[in-house]
Design a protein that fits this description.
Blueprint: E1 5-6, H1 7-13, E2 25-30, E3 34-40, H2 60-78, E4 88-98, E5 107-117, E6 121-130, E7 133-144
Antiparallel strand pairs: 1-2, 2-3, 3-5, 4-7, 5-6, 6-7
Length: 148
């Protein structure tokens, strides 16, 4: 089943809000399998004020966070009981690699696939691309939490 979601629909699923919602659109969603998400990188992002003045580069950890947020949408959509807005906690990151800097004006496409998913824990593999070239890749593990 394919779906397309805008940022308003993404915010119904994830608990993240400005300035930490890091994906703008879901381009493709196949429940239980994969998701393709988009992030428009603009000079207005708060992190560019300090990373780095005169040479703005998107921090690699935020690229991985955006990848994880896309994975979070996939996790929630893939669960039988959909708990929108519940937290999803990082458990681990493996095989993290940064290949190229991401700068204002870039559009990152995240291609995420589920490697393993259980009731409370999931593992994904993700690739982030700009203009078809890999800028980052990682395997991420997360646990589903509950609202407190």
């Amino acid at each position: 089943m394919e779906k397309i979601l805008d940022v308003t629909e993404i915010m119904k699923i994830l608990p993240h809000r400005y300035p930490f919602i890091l994906i703008d659109r879901i381009l493709e969603l196949v429940e239980g399998e994969k998701i393709v998400a988009l992030k428009n990188v603009t000079i207005n992002e708060q992190f560019f004020q300090g990373h780095f003045p005169g040479m703005p580069i998107m921090p690699g950890v935020l690229i991985i966070e955006a990848m994880a947020q896309a994975g979070g949408v996939l996790f929630v959509a893939s669960k039988q009981e959909k708990k929108y807005g519940d937290p999803i906690y990082f458990m681990g990151m493996d095989k993290v690699r940064f290949r190229k800097p991401v700068v204002p004006g870039d559009q990152i496409i995240f291609d995420i696939k589920i490697l393993n998913m259980r009731t409370k824990v999931a593992k994904i593999a993700g690739v982030a691309k700009v203009d078809g070239k890999c800028v980052a890749e990682a395997e991420l593990m997360a646990a589903f939490g509950e609202k407190i």
